[in-house]
Structure of Sigma 54-interacting transcriptional regulator:
Amino acid sequence: MPQSVFKLESLLETHEQPFMVIGADLHVLAVNQAWETAFGIAREVQVGRPCCEQQGACRHQRLFQTLEPYGGIFEVDGRKDKKLLNVRGYPLLDADGRLYLGESQSLLHKRGDEVHQSGMVGKSEPFLRLKTQLQQAAAIQAPVLLLGETGTGKELAAEFIHRHSQHAQGEFVIADCTVFGEDLFESELFGHEKGAFTGAASGKKGLFELADNGTLFLDEIGELPVSQQAKLLRALESGQFRRVGGTVTLKANVRVLCATHRNLADMVRQGRFREDLFYRLSVFPIEIPPLRERKQDIPILVEHFLKQFGPLKGQHLTIGREGLIKLIQHGWPGNIRELKNCLHLATGLCAGAIIQPQDIHFMRMIGEQTGSLAMEDVDLQQAPAGNGGNMSTLEQYEASFIGSLIKKYQGNRKLIAAEMNISERTLYRKLNRLNLN
Ligand SMILES: Nc1ncnc2c1ncn2[C@@H]1O[C@H](COP(=O)(O)OP(=O)(O)OP(=O)(O)O)[C@@H](O)[C@H]1O
């Protein structure tokens, strides 16, 4: 494996979704730990295998030809059974300009016994209020709209409601609305019959059917194209739908939960979200507070994540007092996901069994808030004393990666942003931060 890809592997580990890197020869180059856990296959077995059964006539092959990122729902073979995945593929370039394919593969549905067992952790006032609301939501049937910034735990909250509801024995099906373009939405949600459109070689159940007697979680509902919103509303109101190309009306007993990081009420005012669907979905709105407003949860979250990451190092990990203070002083724009990723990286960088300040690196963002909680409000009792040191390679790595794209595209930001699959605005911020302007 080329040296630069080897370095990428440590970045893969900060990815909480199953993630795979495929080479231009259509063989698997790397997978992360989340992938091993989701599929029950060790990386030693998977690395070096062909990318998929239809190798050569597959989505991976197409990406190497077109360089176009893709998204959608695909069926793949797991160790025990076939699994439905929400897939996103991106072209990746290493520092030497070599092209790879990175694919995130999140499981679309989880049976009761697969649903997150580790649960939600927290003990702050805002967290306990949230938990009470989630318990109330689980006890009734009303549609729930989970609101909150990215990484605050909306998906985990939806799982919590599912697990504590009367639908707990059914499936928990996750539909990521960001992958449904105009064409995909109807066939993915309601299914299609054989021959319904070009490429429909066989009939397929939709997510509504898969979630029968369970819960359908529509994540990022604010991203659903307006043209598709009426179709969703119709199905929610009648509880009935038809597969694309089908003549039979189907019914499914589904609890629907939605989440968004957007202000849907504003979107309604701007005509980007249907008012009738907004009222239908937001009967019980639940706001998930950002981490900066519940910093009292940081010590217990740190302990929780270090318990998960310790075994990766074969060690019981703790954090030094200075390290914990550094975490508490940060604003956490990426919320709990950012904290988790930060600790994952710190686990890798930490030389001993105690995480030190120099092991902790933040992704900096412009306009970041620091939070209003005073240090003395946070219980530091559990933190042992720490010591010092230095280092940071993550930003250098990012800078050299972007530098190679600047060279490749002669500074054309549109093309660079497209290749990195980020907005031009985000690229602009990164360039400023990394002094690449
Ligand atoms: N209270 C919590 N206790 C433990 N882990 C948590 C908690 N809240 C969130 N997490 C973890 O943080 C990560 C992000 O959570 P989640 O995916 O639910 O956020 P989200 O709000 O749905 O994010 P996005 O809007 O970007 O999809 C996950 O790994 C989740 O397990």
